[in-house]
Amino acid sequence: MISYLQIDGLTKSFGDLLLFENMTFGIAQGQKIGLIAKNGSGKTTLLNIIAGKEGYENGAVVFRNDLRVGYLEQSPSYPEGLTVLQACFYSPNETVRLIAEYEEAMAKEDHSRLEDILERMDAMKAWDYEQKAKQILTQLKIQNLDQKVETLSGGQLKRVALANVLITEPELILLDEPTNHLDMEMTEWLEGYLGRANISILMVTHDRYFLDRVCNEIMEIDRKQIYHYKGNYSYYLEKREERIEAVNADIERANNLFRKELDWMRRQPQARGTKAKYRVDAFYELEKRAKQERNNSQVSLEVKAAYIGSKIFEAQHVSKRFGDLRIVEDFNYVFSRYEKMGIVGNNGTGKSTFIKMLIGEVAPDSGDFDIGETVRFGYYSQEGLRFDEQMKVIDAVQDIAEYVDLGDGNKLGVSQFLNYFLFTPEKQHSYVYKLSGGEKRRLYLCTVLMRNPNFLVLDEPTNDLDIVTLNVLEEYLRHFKGCVIVVSHDRYFMDKVVDHLLVFRGNADVKDFPGNYTQYRQWKEEQDRQEKEAEATRLARQKKETEKPKEQAPKVKKKLSYKEQKELEALDVEIPALEAEKAELETVMSSGTLSNDALLEKSSRIAQVMEEIEEKTLRWLELSEFL
User: Fold this and answer.
1) Contact 229, 36 (CB under 8 A)
2) How far is the C-alpha of 397 from the C-alpha of 444, rounded, in Å?
3) Distance CA 349, CA 560 (A)
4) Half-sphere exposure of residue 284, counting CA atoms within 13 Å on the CB side?
5) Is the pTM of this model over 0.90?
6) How confident is the model at residue 558 (pLDDT cuts 50, 70, 90)?
7) Residues 54-70: b if buried by 16+ CB within 10 A, e if exposed
8) What is the CATH number for 415?
9) How far lies 61's CA from each of 7, 49, 56, 172, in Å?
10) What pLDDT digit, counting tens, does each position of 299-317 carry?
11) Burial of residue 348, with CB atoms counted within 10 A of its CB: 0-12 exposed, 13-18 middle, 19 or more buried
12) Residue 217, domain extent
């Protein structure tokens, strides 16, 4: 395989925080690698280093000469003043810039530069490229091409940046959470596109279905070291468990031996001076191994939920619209005790608006939500909690509560609670501004759960959380003794957590489906297949009924009249003349000597000629049947 990228001895730290040390790996042609690590381990930093946006202390990052590299950042940005179209084609690539010129020229009434652009498009064979670009823009639903990038939402900007990366057709693509802000339909399209594309990938994502179906290798950063697995995410899970068991067994053996050696050290003080020095050195090395932390840390979420009564909420004739956009229309629903509902649908169909109406942040136009008296909401929003960046992590949580109620009279202090969420004592006494984006989301999740809610409303909880946290959050939600509503585009998460769905299909069309997301997709695919078969059957029947009278009509032998004979003779002359004129027009138009006005005039004439040729040829065939 051709080597695209080689990283040797890479070391990176921020002050006294060492992210990784002496890291070495390579990426070759055809490799599609998923990068996995806990939040704060340096995933985004590593991508920024490779992309040249971040420095490093030691090591080397070497690319193959002239390699085309694309980078989708977690939070992309573009210069102010660019339109969406310009941002989509923002690239030093000459072909990409030419297509941007062509699209801008086509969007304007002034076509004075069009002739020159068309010639350059032909010369650079850019038409296939342009078609692929249009397909990408269509699939990502990028339509308002004149809008300025500074007015876009975070989700819109992410889609524009994704289009920009894909349009440039890189040989190596770096992706930092590519599915964030994409709805399920777009995610599945991107999954198929990257899976088929002949490109190399280094990708950070929490979407495990996406990871499993796109990547053929997994790299994990754990304890400042990198581990490589030759297989997809499912294979990685299996082999990682084997590695952890082996490490834990080694630590256990080291602990047993350490206890024996410690006893020897205490009983043999005179041995430390001379001939047993090698054993003393070995003891201190063994001590390091024995004191390693076992790799079994998990996020513990065994928090007691407050009592919840039998009445949860009832949606009674709820309607909501924004202008012409209808969210719900005369919507009715009775929510059951301990119900776990998932809400899915394309972006813009009103999922977040619906849950904001439920918790009282947005008022419906008509109807209401009748909430039970015992319901205590815990709301995790996309926007997140606004922390004071200058506060310490532990102080930010103590402002919420002094302890967490675990039930049975047991309480958990804030420091212990944070430790369960993988915040080490050092992290707890660090400042909020030093946390990574994922760590801040994890801290926000802590503050929601420790309020002792009995009805969790989670709006895109999987964005920016690492896979370790997600696995435990899923287990917690499955055993949570309360109610749950989850809005998420993470298919794996939805499959594990919810027992039925509300599917927002747009224009106030809301489907209640009894099952998880995979079951819904299977049902929908079957419905689509049946609809296609029914439509094909209808069209075939319609065609058969239309053709039936013709088949039954008796054939009548007919002779040409004198007038028809003359018409046929004239067609024998006219058709070759039109063909000759068409050939002459094609030659003139491709000569490059015509002015813009003349080119438009010739284009109009050749269309007329082709239409006349088709019309006269059909008439000639019709008359010639009776010869």
Assistant:
1) no
2) 9
3) 64
4) 5
5) no
6) low
7) eebeebeeebbeeeebb
8) 3.40.50.300
9) 5, 8, 10, 14
10) 444 556 677 888 899 999 9
11) middle
12) 3-237
